Amino acid sequence: MKYLIINGSPRKKNTWMMVQQVQKNLDGSFEEIHLFEEEIPLCKGCYNCIMKGEQFCPHKNLIMPIVEKIKEADGLIIASPVYAMNVTALLKNFLDHTAYLYHRPEFFTKKAIVVVSTAGAGQKKVANYIDETLRHWGVNKVYKISLACGGKDSLEREKIDKIAKKFRKDMDSEKLHSPKFMDIIFYNVWRAMALTDEPIPADKEFWFKTELVKYDFAPEVKLGIIKKIFAKLMFNILKRVM
Length: 242
Prior knowledge:
- By secondary structure, the chain is of the alpha/beta class.
- It has 2 domains: 2-173, Rossmann fold (3-Layer(aba) Sandwich), CATH 3.40.50; 181-241, no CATH class.
- The chain has helices spanning 14-23, 35-38, 48-51, 60-72, 89-97, 100-103, 123-137, 157-173, 181-193, 201-209, 225-241; strands at 2-7, 29-34, 75-81, 111-118, 141-148.
- A 5-stranded parallel beta sheet has the order 2-1-3-4-5, with helices on both faces.
- It is globular.
C-alpha cells in the first residue's frame, strides 16, 4: 500500500508522534507532506478553482502536485493539532484551496485516517471537521484518532494501535463501504446543479466528462436498494428545485 501523510502541524511533537505510532501498524510505503515546508500563500477566495477549474488557481503550482499525490496514494493520513478549537491555519489554508472538490468529488476509492491532538479540548470537533471535508472530497471511509496529549507518555498507544489496525485491515480488504445518506444528498446536489440552465462551467464539464452525472452515486461504490431509491428520489427533487 502507498500512503500519503499530510501534516498540518507547524512542528513535530505530539501530533507527529501519534502519526508515527499509526505508521507502525501499517504495511507499505509512506510519503510525507509537511505543510509548513510548502509555504502555500493564503487562499485569495478568487473562486477560480470552483468557477473556471482548479487549473486556474493562482497557486496551482503548489496545490496541484499535492492533489496529484493524493490521487496516486491508496490511503491518506491527515494530521493536525487543535489550534483555537479548529485545525491549524496551515491545514485550513490547504483545504480552502481544495474547495472545488466539494463540487467535484473524485476520491471515491480512497480511505483515510485522521490524527488530531490537543493540549486541552476540541479534538473531536476538529477530527469531525476533517472527516466531513474528506467525505465531501468523496473519500470512502474515514477513521479518526483524537486525543488530549500532555506529552509522549500520554499518547494512549493502545487506542492509536486499535484504530490504526482497523484502518489497516480495511485497507487490505479493498472493500468499499456504502456512503452515508448525507453523502448521497451532497453528491446529488452537485450532480443536479450540473444540469441546471446556468451551471457552473467547471462543474458541468466535470460531471459530464466523468459521466458521474449518469449515476446515483460513484459507480465503484455499491448502493443497497434503500439507498438507491433514496438517491433517485433526492436527485429528482433537487433537479426540480434547481
